[in-house]
Amino acid sequence: MVTHSNINLTSAEIGSLWTAYQNNTLATCIFEYFSAKNEDVDMETILKIAQSTSEEQLAFITEVFKQESFPIPVGFSKEEDVYPTAPRIYDDTFYLMFLRQMAKVGMATYSAALSLAVREDIVKFLNDCLMFTSELYQKATELSVQKGIMIRPPYMSYPEKVEFIEDKSYFSASLNPFTSKRPLNAIEISHLFMNMETNLLGSMLTTSFAQMAHSKEVREFMIKAQEIAQKHINIFSKTLVDNNMQAPMSWNTNIKNSTTPAFSDKLMMFLTTLIGNAGMGNYGLAAAASMRMDLGSDYFRLALEVGKLGKSGADIMIKNGWLEEPPQSADRKKLAQEK
Length: 339
Prior knowledge:
InterPro entries: DUF3231 (IPR021617), Ferritin-like (IPR012347). Pfam families: DUF3231. The protein is mainly α. The protein is built from 10 helices and no strands. The radius of gyration is 22 Å and the shape is globular. The two termini are 40 Å apart.
């Protein structure tokens, strides 16, 4: 029987492992600061589990890369990218909110990676990662409910009977500003809520990053990112309110006044980009799932705005030598020309 020892990694497996390495080195730095500042006994256990699991996943990826004679990525380090002695800037409830939202990103990332993996050891690793992020999400959700800080999606009345769409106006009439928009359906409401949550986290993070950043250009980028996140929150909130639904309130947490950096500018830029990319992915899913065409139009327009912000962020990272290049295939044309 052929074993994984003589089966090369596929491009999909290389990409998944490289991405997981970047994200887990990021996570260990963030958890290092959170653990140093956390004062909540209930949070201590979940933070330790998240930290130790990230380190175990890094150890596995590093070993695979060594066995494959694959260069170990740079990623992030506790020595250069996190400052645990910096003053507290987040409430303990923020750590719980952050864990829950990043677990969502992890579930989406690992499920996609798992669907493309073939080699036995990589399949098992990605499946274990998916199971852990799912359990982390469950633990963070349960603790949020226990502490009374859980923000639930809006409630709606149950339908009295099964109905079928009988008119094309269900999809298109809402584009006419003089025509009344039909009520939102449950799927559309869920995506509006999810995108509000993502932007709430982004708004809070970029507010704190703007205060802490060393570089003026990074501070200005974070201010711009915060303004965009807040703008998108207002758009989604208005859509729900116009549908006679209560828009979710923000989390009961706040950003403190410290301006002492807790993280490097490189880490803050990477994390902001990561959340922005997750947001664009959410917008794409929401546009595809929303049957009201005005919603799809909004999502595409807002995704473009996030994409432009991401491009400006990438320019800053390239300028400062912070943007690590993902593994790429050989440039066959260049090789032929140089021969």
